[in-house]
Automatic annotation (TrEMBL):
SUPFAM superfamilies named in the record: Di-copper centre-containing domain
Source species taxonomy: Eukaryota, Sar, Stramenopiles, Ochrophyta, Dictyochophyceae
Species of origin: Octactis speculum
Protein name: Tyrosinase copper-binding domain-containing protein
Length: 279
């Protein structure tokens, strides 16, 4: 049967944005889940036009040809549009996918939405109801991940010593796949804390590729809370993820203590330095 784009987005949200865990990515199910949803999407495309098929992007070819990720053909207007639109909200505004809408007023359709009722992850409190894209993460362009995964990196996990399925599953979610999300999606809207990030970058105390993981890790453990609902005219600053005062006013819960207790320090090795900078 034909399945709409919003149906498939909701399905992915149910798998990836549940409060208990990320069922689709943080375990052995990543391959089966993504093969399955891609198959469903392709079947839906073929219901419309049986000469079509799901797109396939072998980014190892571009790496081997020394093509920078932001110069990939997929960012041309007749493919998926600009890799970093220069309008203030980074809305994809050219090409065939320009102004692709994110479903609004989605609470009757999905149990998972953001506070504005958009069909997004709860911790993504962006209120703009369109497809967006940016080529920096928290203001940084040259991330630890700023190249496509290579053939050599794929081959490594198929050679002796790396054939454990758990290692391959972890690599498919991380090293071989995750960097592409980080590069082409981006992360912005952190201007209120720009001075903190500037200090962290200056001293080499963070890898920006990990920052985008913090919100969902801390949200799942209750350290970050979200408004239950925000109207479309609620200013973004009033509808942000936040640490409840019950924690921030507790002397036992300093920033470093929260990062320690939550396990975030395992992916952010300089968390103590962050607290020193924030003081």
């Amino acid at each position: 049967d034909y399945l709409s784009l919003t149906y498939l987005v909701r399905q992915h949200l149910y798998g990836a944005a549940s409060i208990e865990c990320d069922h689709w990515h943080d375990g052995a199910g990543i391959i089966n889940h993504h093969v399955g949803i891609t198959w469903e999407m392709e079947n839906s495309l073929r219901k419309i036009d049986n000469t079509t098929a799901a797109h396939y992007w072998d980014y190892t070819i571009e790496y081997s040809e020394n093509v920078e990720w932001y110069d990939s053909d997929i960012f041309k207007d007749d493919w998926f549009g600009n890799n970093s639109p220069d309008n203030v909200d980074h809305i994809v505004d050219t090409g065939r996918w320009r102004y692709t809408e994110v479903m609004s007023n989605a609470r009757d359709f999905s149990i998972t939405t953001n506070p504005y009722g958009l069909l997004r992850s709860p911790w993504n409190s962006n209120k703009i109801p369109y497809l967006m894209r940016h080529n920096t993460t928290a203001g940084a362009f040259h991330l630890p991940y700023h190249n496509f995964p290579t053939c050599e990196e794929f081959a490594k996990y198929l050679t002796s010593g790396y054939t454990d399925f758990s290692k391959i599953s972890s690599a498919l979610n991380g090293e071989l796949h995750g960097p592409v999300h980080i590069m082409i999606g981006g992360l912005w809207g952190m201007h209120a804390h720009a001075n903190i990030w500037d200090e962290l970058y200056k001293f080499g105390y963070t890898t920006t590729s990990n920052i985008l993981l913090f919100s969902k890790f801390l949200w799942r453990q209750g350290f970050i809370r979200l408004p239950d609902s925000c109207s479309s005219d609620t200013p973004t600053i009033d509808c942000m993820p936040h640490c409840p005062s019950l924690l921030t006013e507790d002397a036992d819960y300093s920033a470093a203590r929260i990062l320690d207790k939550s396990g975030v320090q395992k992916i952010f090795p300089h968390w103590k330095k962050m607290e020193l900078i924030m003081v």
